[in-house]
Amino acid sequence: MVRQHGRSARRHAHGGKHGLSRARLRRQGNRSPDGQRAGGAFGHSRLGLRHPGAHPTGRACRQFEPRGRHRRDAVRGKTGSSEAVSSTRKLLLTNGAVVVAAVVLDQLIKYVVVSTMALGEAIPIFPFLALLHARNTGIAFSMFADVGPLGLAILASVVLVAVMILWVKTPPERKLTHFALAIVTGGAIGNLIDRLSLGYVVDYVYFHTPAFSFAIFNLADSFISVGAFLIILDELILDPLRQRRTRRRRSID
């Protein structure tokens, strides 16, 4: 009894020398600097995350890492975001190419008409269609001819900016609307180039019948008209159909 009591006293004295017993030192060694036990509340979670806890020496710990299904979801999320960026970039490049093609084609035809036909000259193609070299001081289909070149240039610029804003706000999945806005933009730029460089727009397409004569227009006007029609078609008919199909698929799933 005396020996055991002496050993116990020596162990207690050894622990008291440092102010803590060995068991207490081990417990403190398993705690993180902020008081949380390693592998405790932050060691595991229901989401399958693992955290090694704070190291007793104060070294930095690894961050939370997803495991299992959550790791697959994280990888899919990164892949989906990269695919969305790639799709948006491809859409921008395609629409930009459409705009450039529309402007180049419009300006090329106008150059051929101006360089090969005298002003007022007409070349019949069909009984109802002819090429007629004319100058338009108005906007599309000779409207607002009394506004003046500067006023029409400002009006065309405002319309072009409005179209660009609408284009930016259009969802990427509405590809027909994007194409329509691209040809509208190309047509507006083509006519704006004429107006700023010449003070008028070169027209050359002339529809007529013995009883009716339509306004003379050009390819840029056609781009604007067809694009506006496609936008209305997609907005009023095609997009509601897409939304209805999407709701139907979700209800089935």
From TrEMBL:
Q: Where is the composition biased (Basic residues)?
A: 1-29
Q: Which residues cross the membrane?
A: 111-130, 150-168, 180-202, 214-238
Query: Where does this protein reside within or beyond the cell?
Result: Cell membrane
Q: Name one GO cellular component term.
A: plasma membrane
Ordered alphabetically, the record's keywords are: Aspartyl protease, Cell membrane, Hydrolase, Membrane, Protease, Transmembrane, Transmembrane helix
Where is the segment annotated Disordered? 1-82
The record ties this protein, via InterPro entries, to: Peptidase_A8 (IPR001872)
Molecular function GO labels: aspartic-type endopeptidase activity
Catalysed reaction(s) here are: Release of signal peptides from bacterial membrane prolipoproteins. Hydrolyzes -Xaa-Yaa-Zaa-|-(S,diacylglyceryl)Cys-, in which Xaa is hydrophobic (preferably Leu), and Yaa (Ala or Ser) and Zaa (Gly or Ala) have small, neutral side chains
Which residues does the Swiss-Prot or TrEMBL record annotate as the active site? D203, D221
Q: Which GO terms describe its biological process?
A: proteolysis
Superkingdom per UniProt: Bacteria
Transmembrane among the record's keywords? yes
EC id: 3.4.23.36
Q: Tell me what topology the record assigns in the membrane.
A: Multi-pass membrane protein
Pathway given for this chain reads: Protein modification; lipoprotein biosynthesis (signal peptide cleavage)
NCBIfam families in alphabetical order: lspA
What this chain does, per the entry, is described as:
This protein specifically catalyzes the removal of signal peptides from prolipoproteins.
Q: Which family does it belong to?
A: Belongs to the peptidase A8 family.
Q: What is this protein called?
A: Lipoprotein signal peptidase
Q: Which gene encodes it?
A: lspA
